[in-house]
User: Fold this.
Amino acid sequence: MNSFKLGLCSVTFRKKSAAQVILIAKKAGIDYIEWGGDIHVTTVEDARIVKSLCDNEGIKISSYGSYFNSIEYDEEKWIQVCEITKKMEAPSIRIWLGKKNSEE
Assistant:
């Protein structure tokens, strides 16, 4: 048995639904998914649904890719990000640490 785990980011499949992403992950033997906050998990209700779908398929949630920008801090948005993360029981949150996009 392998000692390593495999994961993917849901944003790799932007045009697929959360349920489709989970199906793809399951078929590929993926253990973990980081759920993106720009497409798949934008609300606490989305988080509840995604958590349930993952639990049903035995897939863990590795993190929440929030797209929260630490430079342009917005307390209301941060609270929402934390609520979503908590609802999914994700152990970590990915945020942006600057103003430049990833290509820069």
Remarks:
- The longest helix spans residues 44-57.
